[in-house]
Amino acid sequence: MSGEVLLQATVQGLQMGAIYALIALSMTLIFSVGGLLNFAHGDFMALAMYGALALYQSFSLDAYAAAPLLFFGFFLLGFLMFRRLVQPVLAAGVLAGAQLTLGLVFVQENFLLMVFGGDYLSVPTVLSNKNLVVPPLIMPWPLLVGSLLAVVLAAILYVVLMRTDFGRQVRAITQNSDAAALMGIRIDRIQAIAFGIGIGLLGLTGAIIVAQFTLTPAMGLDFTLIALIVMVIGGLGSFAGSMIAGAIIGVSESLGSLLYGGTVGAMIPYAILVLVLLFRPHGLMGEH
Amino acid sequence: MRETRLRSSAVLPWIAFLAVALAPLMMSSGWTNMAILTLLFVHLCIAWNLVGGIAGQFCIGHSLFLAAGAYTSTLLSIHLGISPWIGMFAGAALAAVIGVFIAWLSFRYELPPLSFALVTIALAMLGFLAISSIDFLGASRGLTLPVRGTPAMYQFRSDTTYYVVILIQVIIALALSMWLYHTKIGLYLRAVRDNERAAHAIGVPVLKYKMLAMAISAALTAFGGTFYAQYLQYVEPHTFAGINIVIQIILLTVVGGSGTVWGPVVGPLLLVPAGEWLRHSLGGSLPGVHLLIFGVLLVVVIRFAPDGLIGAFGRARQAWRFRRGVAEAATQ
Asked: How much is the pTM?
């Protein structure tokens, strides 16, 4: 196999990796403020992708223009959902919370199936089917733009968490929520805002990568699993770790499918997760 | 006095359960299919509950055990002509070995909480992808069982016979689960669930008992897998190794009340017929609408009773007794 093909697959893997990392970071944000393992994570993004489709069909609004709208819409959805639905269940334990999100998987998948049907759909955008050719590489514009925006958004999230009061409060809750509560941080509010931002980010992410994917109602679970894998491998809450883990998963998946076929490519991330959990249970960059 | 109350509280649910479970035998044959599906889920939920509820270890890998039961008995029947009545024990043994191995792998070290869920979900996905691509296992097309048509080969003319088989399986599983719950094993497992460190400190061999719970749960699940394969007369990865069936098992158990003896019975007993009824009355109109309503129903129950219907029932009974006590005290 020629080096050019390998290079092509590696670059594509890195670009997918940046997107995986962003999805994992929003999952980490939700996990870090309340211990909620959100199994419906990818389904929220699928919902956003179908939202972009609906906006295009009804108002001919391009997905990239719809992205800010979807961010605010999903922020509100997440905030309200946390207050009315997730928080009371989470009070009964993180296990009950995780089980609730499994129920949400069921609800969202079938909602999409009911409204949009089970057929494969795609959303046309200004960038669809256009490639950037930098010999020897051919890069699809949607993937290139999606991955660059993912890196930018991850950087913004990093600055927000490190430099703002909200970010300090989030980190305080992550380190010791009891002590944070004693310091006067309103935990339930920060949790709801963090959940809102996490879901809002999924709204945004869904819109900016929708041109790269074919939509089916059951696509969410795959994204959830990839996000879980990246989150765990990177070490919970580590930004650099998530970016590196995203790159590892993206590249190994892409090279795996190229060299050994699609099934083996799809198996590699899970195999890496099992190995990491067994031998480095706190992730590559995680703290003890 | 106390003893009689204890005995009646143990016997009454059995009477109620048997009354409900025997009813389909009197009904017209149109109901049998639904009744079989319901009892199959009761069986699978009882099995999952041993690990996921009583021992409190959030396992999402039970599709592996279901597949072990279904595929082992089917392959033995196709290639060696061995009756699934014998093959089901081979499947259960294989599932138990896989379960013990997974438990040993995951619980050797003190991993962060919920990472067991992640290990098992990853292994389940690996299993699903492997089964869907290996030709010997029928890949994504699946395998069809040869028609032999004799009860000795686990094939019956009437669905009613299948119903009797799954009913006997459920009674055995339920008796086993009830016995485990009240013996030392169940007490140890519940201690591990409630506070693993404390259990370890007072000398509970935590790893050993988690492995034991996985072995029993996996074997029971595999028996369910063999039954389902024989009933459908084919095996195929989406039905037997997909993650969706595990999600359904978990949700049905949680809605009934996970970690209790009767929760995994009540959940599927109420919700599987409800789901089937929704499918019949709405399924034709819009794709997914019946599952959407079903999902909303599950979420609503979890929202208002995170400890399940059994827990909500217990609280309601307590509140009623308290109110009666207050009323009695007021009249005296």
From this structure: 0.88
